[in-house]
Amino acid sequence: MSFWFSLREGIKGLGRAKLASLITISSTSFALFLVGLFINFSVNVNYLIDDFRSRIELEIFLEADIQNQAGIEISKRIAALESVGEVTFISKEEAAKRFEEEFGRSVYDVLDTNPLPSSVIVKMKTGFQTLEHITGLANKIYLIDGVSDIVYQRNFILLITRYINIVYLIGISSGVLLIFIAVVLLYNTIRLTILARSDIIEIMKLVGATKSFVRRPFLIEGFIQGASGAVISGLMLYGLMLLIRKFFYAGLIDSLEIYGSLLLLGTVIGVISSKLSISRYLQEI
User: Fold this and answer.
1) What domains are defined for the chain?
2) CB of 50 within 8 A of CB of 183?
3) Contact predicate 120/90, CB 8 Å
4) What distance in Å separates the CA atoms of residue 162 and residue 157, rounded to the nearest whole number?
5) 158-206 pLDDT, tens per residue?
6) Strands (E), the chain
């Protein structure tokens, strides 16, 4: 019975303090919109990093006298190594075709024989695309008979490795800061709502209402305000993502999980902020 009373009072409370509720919901919407931007940015940065990592390749050149069958056997030995994800053997003939496609002329237009060696293209497994793993793999491959040289994008890999931790640190710090700002905004606006209704709280205390009974309608209000702010911020974010995909970058990633996270975060922040505000007020009176 007390729950339904608290629910009714919580909903009525939104109507009694329309301006304060509007300010609270607006503040929540703005704060969660910033959080949503951060989440979306983080998801897209992670996607780009994974895409860059997936492009990392090692090209293993074989000795000039290695025949196709021997080259295939070498590629099988490489494929058996732990960190190797995908292996492609390129014969001398295939290398000549690729040369012609890239440069528009055949190697035979310049030389009587094909000087291009057979090679093996290696892509790393997910989780092994770091400079340490790639260098370790290259050292193992060098020990295989028939391998002449190994080429990989060391500077590109070093760049990703160097800055990826910085990106993650900035991302986590920004996320924590934005969530903190959202809590502070909600806390202060909800506290104003509580102060505006101090007379009602005083009457409830005088008639013997417990602190938990007094607190419950405000928690429900906080839940509704947080959820409302999350829905509005989600609509704002969705509209912004549509504009960005239409006019700037069509490959931008957007997912339902982001909006679900906003809704969950909004309701949790709303309830926590309300609890902090009403608990502090009840301690002061």
Assistant:
1) 2-51+165-284 (no CATH), 57-152 (3.30.70.3040)
2) no
3) yes
4) 8
5) 777 777 778 778 877 877 887 787 778 777 777 777 777 777 777 777 7
6) 57-62, 84-90, 119-124, 147-152
* AA identity, residue 76: K
Q: Which residue has the tokens 């922040």?
A: 269
The Cα 3–Cα 215 span in angstroms is 12
32 within 8 A of 236, measured Cβ to Cβ: no
**Which residues touch 96 (CB under 8 Å, ≥6 apart)?**
106, 107, 108, 114, 116
Dig out the tokens for 207 from the structure: 């008639």
Within 13 Å and on the Cβ side, how many CA atoms surround 235?
Answer: 6
Cβ neighbours for 68, distance < 8 A, ≥ 6 positions apart? 91, 92, 118
| pTM of the predicted model over 0.90 | no
Query: What's residue 146's pLDDT?
Result: 92
Q: For residue range 135-147, what is the model confidence (pLDDT) as tens digits? A: 899 999 999 999 9
Show the tokens assigned to 271.
């309830």
Written as six digits, the tokens of 19 are 């301006």
Radius of gyration (C-alpha) of the chain in whole angstroms: 31
